[in-house]
Amino acid sequence: MYPIGVFHPGTQHSWQTARALQSTGQLGWYLTSIYWQPDRFPYKLANAMPRSMRKRAEYEFSRYHHPDLDPSKVHATNSFEWWRRAASRAGSRGLATILARLSDASMGPPVAKLARRHPVRAVWGYDNVALEGFLAAKKGGALCVLDRTVGHPTVYNRIMDEVYEQYREFFVSDEYKKRSWVIDRVNREHELADLVLVGSDFCKSTLLDPDVQSISNEKLRVLPYCYDNVFFFNGRIRKREAGRPVRFLFTGQAGPRKGIHLVLRVFEKLPLNAATLTIVGSLEIPKEVFARYRDRIDYHPTVPRDQVRSFMERSDYLVFPSYFEGAALVINEAMAMGLGVIQSARTHVPQPNSPLVMKEVSEAELTRCVHTAIDQIHLLEELSVDGIERAREFTFDAYAQRVTQLIESVNGIDR
Fold it and tell me: For position 345, which CATH number holds?
């Protein structure tokens, strides 16, 4: 049985996919762009830095490493991704966008090279960054598995048009739509893929939308994701402490797609002694708009994953009012840590009977959920107990079993 190659210029949940295949002996190689291996160039240059600079460099590199991945299976390439991340950190959005396109399109040659050196039965790529890798793999006769981590951009444009009309001050620019070349690229990936995986029924529904280029329902499989048990694990059952404000946490890209504007507007109206809000992640709204809400918020830029865990340990509820998702990993992580979760239904919904699942994505509905969390003192404990139990469905071991079953179906597909 030939192994499978996994590739992604960033991360997404590709680490977990590679780990799952590795655990069953089916990982041929894992190709990415930035992966910290201290004994390899350029990472070993950090050893020559002054102590303070070296600690800072290692702190940054530690965000691109997973201790459970076999380093002999990991191959790092793609200099564009380095420059893209640097441009993004510097606030050069235009340059970062250009470099991201170059980074995404540069995976073909290294995939072809690895497939020649280490033949694989199939390659496993991810939406928007798989096209060139798939084209290279097809030439070698490999099957192509597309992991679609978010819904179709055509549906995204339609949804975000409505958001923009109502909340345009929260958009960095009016160029929020996915362009036609992105949609064409996505559709071409769907055509090349032998299987298209999605993490939720909502994501699947966007691929079957009437406005989307037809895709065979036989190609589509729902493959629920897992949380990373190395950084997040079953936590303590949370209980409300009398006299203390309820501690809410928002983590991830703080932009309109994730509903950050709803969060800011709802929390500015809450009494100071009722709730606190911590935001951890990249800020993707105009700074002058964010400044109006700054005195109510404890804000932290993007941090390594082990530090996200520490923020969760100090929180009661995760707030996730997203307009458009695939299957949000942070929900699984929060449940595993024992947090209550306020979420929209436009992703996977692991606690469907929770009163904190938003019936629609709106200020009014988020307000209802937040006040419910504040007013119902025992709700946190109830959701914490239920969430920790349900998180077992999204452990790495459970995901590895689902991947194993998928591999069996892949091996049954003719080349």
Answer: 3.40.50.2000
